Amino acid sequence: MEALEQFGKYSLLLYRSLRSLYEVDTYRKNLINELLKIGYESVPIVLLTGVFTGAVMTIQTAYQLDIAFIPVSIIGAITSESLLMELAAVITSLVLAGKVGARIATELGTMRVSEQIDALESMGFNSVSFLVLPRVLAGLIMFPMLYIFASVSGILGGLVAGYFSGAVSPAEFMSGAREFFFPWDVTFGILKAFVFGFVITSVSCFKGYYASGGAEGVGNSTTQATVLSCIYVLLADFVLAAVFL
Amino acid sequence: MKISNELKVALTILVALVAGFFGYRLMGDMPMFRQSKIIHAHFVQADGLTPGSYIFVSGVRVGSVKSMQLSNGDSVKVSMSLDLDTHIPKDSEAHLQSSGLLDEKAIVIIRGNSQQDVEHNDEIKGIYEGGMMETLKQEGEQLSEDVSESFEKLNTLLEELNTMVDEEAQGKIDTTLTNLQTSTDEMATLFRNKRSDLELSITHAQQFLANMDTVSTRNKSRIDSVLTGLDRSLTELEVLSHELTQTNRELREVLVKINNGEGSLGKLVNDPGLYDNLESLSGEMDLLIKNINEDPGKYLKHMRLIEVF
Amino acid sequence: MIEIRNLTKSFGSNLVWKDVSFNIEDGETVAIIGRSGCGKSVLVKHFNALMYPDSGEVIIDGNNVFELEYVDLRKMRQRFGVLFQGSALFDSLNTFENIAFPLRYFSDFDENEIKKKVEDALDMVNLTGTGDQSPAELSGGMRRRVALARATILQPDFLIYDEPTSGLDPQTSEEINQLIISMADNLNITSIVVTHDIHSVLKIADRIAYLEEQSLYWHGTVEELRKSEDRILMDFITASEYQIRS
Ligand SMILES: Nc1ncnc2c1ncn2[C@@H]1O[C@H](COP(=O)(O)OP(=O)(O)OP(=O)(O)O)[C@@H](O)[C@H]1O
Ligand SMILES: [Mg+2]
To answer: Per the database entry, which stretches of residues form a coiled coil (chain B) (predicted)?
Structure first.
């Protein structure tokens, strides 16, 4: 019952953010700022995550396949396909749920408890479209970009790890990766990144926007924002898999 | 120079899109960045083949199966992507064969003689083979049958010869020996024919094992021993065939001598060398027949690969 | 004119006040007093519909603010300037940008005019030259004054001050009281001042609303307050007087 009420409140918040979608002038600066923070500033951590995910995938796949009579190029295929379909989007999102989600929830929560949101509203702003909309939009735009960064760095990481561990040569790795490359995987991955970007930013905005109870309240909403973001990302991942596969 | 936020954002998006675009092209064999040519072949069926299955020319991997679809009529159209620098004649044949365990298939292209090379989007002839295993098995059975039949014939002949010697029916010996010669000729031919078959099989097996070799080095020693076994079988057969030819020659000499009236039957019977030769030949053949019947695998050891794994 | 009619507000099962009704005439200064936690801040947030009541109306120039379309509500809100209790400066912006913020979005002034206006506003609150400091670098009193400059920059019809002087030294409090008075007199702004400070109430207010016992316990002019013999009201006032004198 309460969950349903929360969901209603959440939906309403999103609706309110869309109500001033056309007032681009008011939130353009915020949008640029959010694109910068969610996109540009997340690139290093995403690249790092990507490289290590790819490298670990390669080495572990190589280890597991050592017993069977399967061409080593399969390592490349498994690594790249798992990255494109699942890991690039999910791991990036889980990392960013912490980084981006926590920042958004803290920012909005602080603005809420220090009455900055009231101040915006009292000036005649639609505080939701001013604060929530640019963040969600930036998430929608940037997560697919970060997915690309994670995928590319992940495949490169796998390639390099395969080479240095001697498990698979770059040429074989790539031939495997290319043989099992299905454009649908990428479409699906980008769709996931899109959905996860939406989930993380909107949930964090919701938690931050309705924070209450001073510094402690902000802390609570931040914790909830990151935890719920992670849970909903995994849930969305499952739902997408169930619907599209 | 201070980079404005707008520029940073634009750069992020741009770099992502460019990386994504080129990555996609690189991964997806897009025509624009094509690194391979696509050729097609029709097969009656394509069970076991999957997109990504390998394509070999003379044992060298040159590409992979891109896609397969049912075409009009009762065939399957298989599109293969070959490395751009593979040159194969236009009249080459694509053989769909077993390449590995678990009924995995691969396409082996047997090169033709045409001066013209296959171009992108060309089609070559496709031949569905039951798979190497099945072929080998059939060949093996055939061989074993042929051999035992021939040996039976030979045995009867030798028996007859013995009887005739006992009865001292010299007149018949002439024809008998002629028969014997034909038989041994047959044997020799048989072995020659079968040898090329067997050699082909062994080449296949070697090719197959070479593939396997790249897969893993763990069972290399076992594979090697199997390979050696196969080689040894071949050598044995060769020796055998050689001996048969030798015997045949000797027989012919005897025959010539008899024809020339140069010796008597007693001389023939008392010639311990010839007798021994015949007997040991008979013994060897018996042994061979027995061996092949009891353990056809000895000559078809590669069939045991399945047991190995 | 702001007409408050039968307002009732509760948070969950927690009643803040009920049945609050009074009028605020144009150009006058109304002080809202009461104990801490009696719901003064909550009350003023109803005037521009930052909060919605359980029941009742707030009618400004004939329109119930709670029934306005969102677009109209936002227009109506722009007629208000609000000095929040915690200043509510945007901590991502420096002092100058905080004050310039409403101008950038809701006026057609060019950059030079904005600069001039903001500097004038900073002069007015005695903060000349602090334009590029961030809110975090300012003291509480300075923040309050920056917030005041921001609340008045668009010359609103109504100005709500939520405890403009609490926690400030007597001298600064006095300066702010003077600002409120001059604002009301010179610009004919209707002012609503929430405060504990009876001293400034008596100085600046035309009328007073006293929240007590979860309702509007008393309201009237300063003259009426002086003459009132209500025990509870007097206890509240004199408690303050006592504090000031000691
Ligand atoms: N957002 C809210 N959610 C729940 N309760 C609230 C909320 N805002 C205020 N309250 C409650 O309403 C009551 C009145 O709060 P309010 O802030 O109006 O007090 P105040 O009169 O302004 O006090 P002070 O003089 O200390 O500022 C308090 O008991 C407070 O707990
Ligand atoms: Mg208050």
So the answer is: 230-257
Partners of residue C77 in chain A, C-beta under 8 Å: 121-124
How far apart CA A48 and CA A92 sit, in angstroms, is 10
Residue spans per domain, chain C: 2-79+158-245, 88-155
Do B198 and B182 touch, CB atoms closer than 8 A? no
Distance CA C202, CA C210 (A): 13
Give CATH for domain C2-79+158-245.
3.40.50.300
Distance CA A113, CA A217 (A): 8
**CB A213 near ligand 1, within 6 Å:** no
Q: Strand pairing of C190-194 and C29-34?
A: parallel
Is the CB of C32 inside a 6 Å radius of any atom of ligand 1? no
Give domain limits for chain A. Answer: 26-244
pLDDT (tens, 9 = 90+) of chain C, 246 residues, equals: 899 999 999 998 999 999 999 999 998 999 999 988 899 999 999 999 999 999 999 999 899 999 999 889 999 999 999 999 888 999 889 999 999 999 988 888 999 999 999 999 999 888 888 889 999 999 888 898 899 999 989 889 999 999 888 878 888 888 888 888 888 888 788 999 998 888 888 888 999 999 998 999 999 998 888 888 888 888 888 876 554 444
Neighbours of B217 (CB within 10 A): 10
pLDDT for A245 equals: 80
Ligand showing the shortest atom-to-Cα distance for residue C84: 2
The pair phi, psi for residue B194, each rounded to 5°, is: -65, -30
ipTM of the complex: 0.89
Amino acid at B188: A
**Ligand closest in space to the Cα of A213:** 1
Q: Per the CB < 8 Å rule, is A35 touching B9?
A: yes
Residue A27: closest CA among chain C residues belongs to which residue? Answer: C105
**Cα A217 from Cα A194, distance rounded (Å):** 29
Q: What is the DSSP string of B14-77?
A: HHHHHHHHHHHHHHHT-GGG--EEEEEEEES--TT--TT-EEEETTEEEEEEEEEEE-SSS-EE
A130/chain C closest Cα distance in angstroms: 12
| Domain coordinates in residue numbering, chain B | 1-34, 36-135, 154-217
Cβ count within 10 A of residue A244: 11
Size of interface A-B (CB pairs under 8 A): 74
pLDDT at C246: 42
Measured N-to-C along each axis, helices A183-209 and A88-96 cross at an angle, to the nearest 10 degrees, of 20
